[in-house]
Every structure is written in structure tokens, then in C-alpha cells.
Amino acid sequence: MEKDTRFDPVVFEMAKVLDRRKAEDIILLDVKKATILADTFIVCSGRSTPHVKTLADELDEAMGRAGVERRRMEGYAAGRWIVMDFGDILVHIFHKEEREFYNIERLWKDEGNFLEYEGTPETDAE
């Protein structure tokens, strides 16, 4: 797999953590030309409210160990759409139903600015 230079290596590390915990339909969006909110959005789904919360917990813990500080987190109590702010990276973890309803990818997805994450050679070999 060729290295994708649109995204910071931290983005791939986050996607790898989410993938290992069985997040579904992980999409990386390069939004730096579209908004000042962040450079990258990571969007994924969990199968249930506990799964959505587990994905957020695991990502928070793994990034903390890696020295990547989370600034804010919204939506954790309900566990239906959790947004985690890591500065230049916003992670959206949706319950499947909320993701289908809000469909935020349609707002941000543009030709060439996204990657449907399917693992990396390192995670595929594990």
C-alpha cells in the first residue's frame, strides 16, 4: 500500500485503533480546504451504544499513551454521536442509525478528499 500523504500519520494511528476495536465504515476526510474547524475528520460507526462508547474510550486511552491530547469530547453520555476534538483532527463516532440519519459525509466528501480506511499493511498482517 502506498503511503497516503493527504493525512497526518496520527490520523492513520487513530484509524488503526478504531479498526482494531471493530469500528465500521471508517472514512478519513481531508477538510482543510473546506473549513477552519479541523484539517481532518475521521468518521466511523459502532454497532451499539456501548460499542460507540468503547470506541471513544479506547481511542482516548491510546492517544493519551501516544502523547496526543484530546481537547474536548461531546455526546459521550448519550453514546449516539460522540465527537472527539484532537485539535486538527475531529473524530466522529456514530451509532449506525445516527450516522445514516445525519450522513455528514455528504456535506464534506468531495472528489479526492477522502479515503475509505480498510486497514494498513501492518494491521492486515496482525
Characterise the protein shown here.
The chain has 126 residues and is α+β, with helices and mostly antiparallel strands. The chain is built from five helices and six strands; from the N terminus they run αββαβββααβα. The chain has a six-stranded mixed beta sheet. A hairpin with a 6-residue loop joins β3 and β4. The radius of gyration is 13 Å and the shape is globular. The mean pLDDT is 89.
Distance between the termini: 15 Å
| Strands ordered across the widest β-sheet | 3-4-5-2-1-6
- Output the radius of gyration: 13 Å
| SSE topology string | HEEHEEEHHEH
- Work out the number of β strands: 6
Mean pLDDT: 89
Q: What would you call the structural class?
A: alpha+beta
Q: What share of the residues lie within helices?
A: 25-40%
- The stretches of 5 or more residues where confidence is low (pLDDT under 50) are none
Beta-strand level of the residues, as a percent range? 25-35%
The profile of the biggest β sheet is:
6 strands, mixed
Q: How many DSSP H or I helices?
A: 5
Described by the principal axes of the CA atoms, the overall outline is globular
What is the topological layout?
Layout: H1 9-20, E1 24-30, E2 40-46, H2 49-65, E3 72-74, E4 81-85, E5 89-95, H3 96-102, H4 105-108, E6 114-116, H5 121-125
Parallel strand pairs: 2-5
Antiparallel strand pairs: 1-2, 1-6, 3-4, 4-5
List keywords for this structure.
126 residues; alpha+beta; six-stranded mixed β-sheet; 5 helices; 6 strands
Question: Can you give me a brief rundown of this structure?
Answer:
With 126 residues, the chain is α+β, with helices and mostly antiparallel strands. Helices cover 36% and strands 25% of the residues.
